[in-house]
Amino acid sequence: METENSEPSRSADARLDEPWDPPENQLLNGKSIASAAAVVLALAAAVVWASMSEDPPAVDADSAAHADFDSDSASGSSPSTEPTESTDPARESESATEGESSGETSSEESASEAAEPDSALPGTGVYRARQEASGLCMTWGEEPDGDRSVMVLGECGDTDPELTWVEDGDRYEVEMAFDEWTPCMTVDDGGTEDGMLVGFDGCDGLDAQTWELAPVGDAYQLLTAASGDLCLSVLKSSSAESGDAVAVQDCDSGDEKQLWTLL
C-alpha cells in the first residue's frame, strides 16, 4: 500500500546507471593532502641537494696520484734521462787514505826538516869563530899568568890574526895569517888531555891541529882529531869573558861555551 509523500522505490539497477557525485567536502580534503605531499618532496629534494653541495665526493688515492701525474706532465716536467754519477765507496776510501797519508808524510817531512840542523859544512874560507855563550870571538892574546900568547876570547870586530879554515873532507886545518909566517892552530901537548890551551905550530897535518865540525842547531862543536871527545871551549875556571883563554874540554853539546858559529 502506498502512502502520501513517499517516493516511489528505485530498483538497484537504476541506481547503478546514475553517475556518482561525491560530496564537495571530500574533494577539498584530497587536494590538501596532495599539496602537502608535494611540499614535503620539495623540502626533501632541497635537503639532499644542500648535503651534496657541502660535502664534495671523496677522491681515492689512485685518482689523486693520477691527477698529480697529469699535472706534472702538463707543466712540462719529466723524469731526467741523464745518468747519475755513482760513487764507489772503496775508491773514496782509497782517496781519503791517500790524502791522509800524503798529509802525514808532509807533516813528518816538515817536522824532520825542522828538527834536523843544517848539516852543510862551510867550505874553505876566512871565518871568525864566535862563541854562543858570550858572543865573543877567538883571537890572539896573552896567556893568563904566563909569558906567551895563545888563543883567547875577544871582540869580534877586532880579531887578529885572520883565520883561514882549510877544508879537507869533513875536517879542517885553521891557518893563522901572521905577518912573518902562517902556522896552524894547535892544541898544546898533543891535544889528548882535558884543559889543554890552544896555541900554534907549523902546519904538519897533526891530529892536534886537525878539527872536526859537529853541527848542533845553527852552531858547531869543534872536536880535536887527537882525541875525538874533546871540544874547543874555555878553561873550566873561566866565565867566558873577554881575555879568557881558549882550551879543550870534554864534549857537551848542551854547553854553550862549546858551541861556535863561523862568521
TrEMBL record:
Low complexity bias locations: 70-87, 96-105
Keywords recorded for this protein, A-Z: Lectin
SUPFAM superfamilies: Ricin B-like lectins (SSF50370)
Domain (Ricin B lectin) ranges: 128-260
Matching InterPro entries: Ricin_B-like_lectins, Ricin_B_lectin
Gene3D superfamilies: 2.80.10.50
Record flagged with keyword Nucleotide-binding: no
MF term (GO), any: carbohydrate binding
Region (Disordered): 1-28, 55-123
Name the record gives this protein: Ricin-type beta-trefoil lectin domain-containing protein
Species this protein is from: Glycomyces harbinensis
Organism phylogeny: Bacteria, Bacillati, Actinomycetota, Actinomycetes, Glycomycetales
